[in-house]
Amino acid sequence: MPSKAAIESLSDSRAARALRVLALVVAAPLSSCGKPAEPPVAQREAPAAPAAPADAKGEQADPNLRVSKELWPNGKVKYTYEMRKGADGKWARNGTGRAYYESGPLEREGLYRNNVRVGKWTYYAPDGSVLRVEERGDG
């Protein structure tokens, strides 16, 4: 460490500034002695992956839900419906079902419960107007 006389004799502001920086560089690591070292943020462990893959919205996907769809020969969607795994481990239509005309517009939509159409089913014309609405009951 330089003597007090040597420090006082420094008239050059650059040299004084350099000594202050040097003192900070030496003092900073010493001030953390005795504290447990923390890893840098970039090296911390990533959070565990979710049990099921996330959907497009980033929400947890349901492992007991599948959306089935079939296509027309022209590649457009023919129908979609939700399949859910029951207590017996078998998959069945449970949830929303939709069918489409080969030209693309929605033809019908409603709900399934255990492969049976239930509740309100709406049927559409190719122009999108409602043709009829059926109430299928509880199955």
What does it look like?
- The protein has 139 residues and is of the alpha+beta class.
- The protein has a domain of 71 residues.
- It is built from two helices and six strands, in the order ααββββββ.
- The chain has a six-stranded antiparallel sheet, with no helix packed on it.
- A hairpin with a 5-residue loop joins strand 2 and strand 3.
- The longest helix is centred in the first third of the chain and has 19 residues.
- The termini are far apart.
- The relative contact order is 0.08.
Q: Helical residue percent?
A: 10-25%
* Helix/strand structural class: alpha+beta
Mean pLDDT: 76
Q: How many strands, which pairing sense, and closed or not: the largest β-sheet?
A: 6 strands, antiparallel
Please work out how many helical segments DSSP would assign.
2
Q: What's the structural blueprint in terms of helices and strands?
A:
Elements: H1 4-8, H2 13-31, E1 65-71, E2 77-85, E3 91-100, E4 106-113, E5 116-124, E6 130-135
Antiparallel strand pairs: 1-2, 2-3, 3-4, 4-5, 5-6
